[in-house]
Amino acid sequence: MKKFLIFFFVLVSPVFGMKEYYSLSRSLRALGMGGAFYGLSNDEYAMFYNPAGLSLYDNSPQAMLNISGQIGSRTLSALKTVKTLSSKSVAESIDALAEYQGDPIYLGAGILPYFLMKHLAVGILLPDLKASYLLSGKEIDSTVDFTAISDAGLLVSYGRSVLNENLHVGMTAKGIARAGGRTSFSLGDIVKGGKLALNPNDLGGTGFGIDFDIGAIYDIPYLPFGESNRVSLVFTNLLATQFSMGSKSTGEPPGLPRMVSLGWHSVVSGGDIVDRIHLLADLAEFQIGGEDDVEIGARSGKFLKHLNVGFEIPIGVLTLRGGLRQGWISGGFGLNFKYAKLDFATYGEELSSGPGRLQSRRFGVTLAMGMGAPNKPFRSLVKGSKVKPGEKEVEFKIAPKPKEEPKIDPALEITPSTEKKKVEEPLSEYQIVTPEPKETGKTPESKPNAKAKKKIKSSDKLEELTD
After folding, report:
1. Where in the sequence of the chain do the CATH 2.40.160 domains occur?
2. pTM summary value
């Protein structure tokens, strides 16, 4: 039992002084493209990124259950190591686990039932767990640092265009119950049989809080590049709640940081297989108040740690993603079916103050099942863009060449006559008069036609009468 406890707390031990950006919930779709998502946010994760993106959602309503899980790159290796500890002493077990010293290990899981439609999203965040761990020190004097945060609550987001069709604004209201915090202990305490109570109150505390996010997206018309270009501005956790409501006397869980984020989103046309490419860039999550402890979620560090860039390429039901997040490469893909969506991503979490220093490589999968339809082709509603008046959807295809009128062979072409058209009149309309003989001067008798209307001579030509 002691060996199991030693392994567990070595396995679940976070970096001492680790500067990880804990969030309520993160989209694996976004993490696959470098974490850049504030300028797009056109799915259920608009509730956690930018609610103004709900104004851009142009799909059928969705009612789905979202289940996600994440794991660190060293966790599976540690699970293999623990299988060899059953026949070893405590000292041998510590030696076997020494290779994981200074190596962060991460576990995460979450469940999110949600309803999504144009303008509106409602989600119930069931326990969303984030746990980061690290073993530091040497042998029996090693120290285990353990941080775990669990969130649950209700989120309601609404977004729509205002003033004109290019400006979109949105707001998210959220009531969140949080438990957890950070603690540390030594392996010596475990070996000596010391009591280790790791309930939420011992880690930090439990409490409830209410907070709000507001965001805006503006479609920029008349730019010389791209089919559509958007810029976004988001203020997250306006109240910077500290979860003091209902907290126990032992303490409060980590609070939320108040943050501001800038985002950019461009769409460029592709080729035959790839209709379009999404390009995104964020200057994300600059803190302007709230939680100030960098080890439990405060946003600190150098400027480049806040820079995220990425791309997304839809190809039928498959979507490819890639990017750069906090100085580390990320990538992933998505599959959209009629009643299910699957997203996979790998990304690097920077655990120091600057990018490219201490990476925690992670892998995650999200499966959403329920009623809904996959994302439709991108729709541009930009006023003044390349979209024709009254046309909403941009089909990135070459327009068919207009049909030409058949040409007549000059040799067979008949030149139109310039003469007046002769109108033929039936002879029954005229009275035939026999001319008088010249030599006698006598006028012969003639019998009138019952239907005749005017007199003509038999020698007159019919064509002359029609002029």
Report:
1. 2-371
2. 0.74
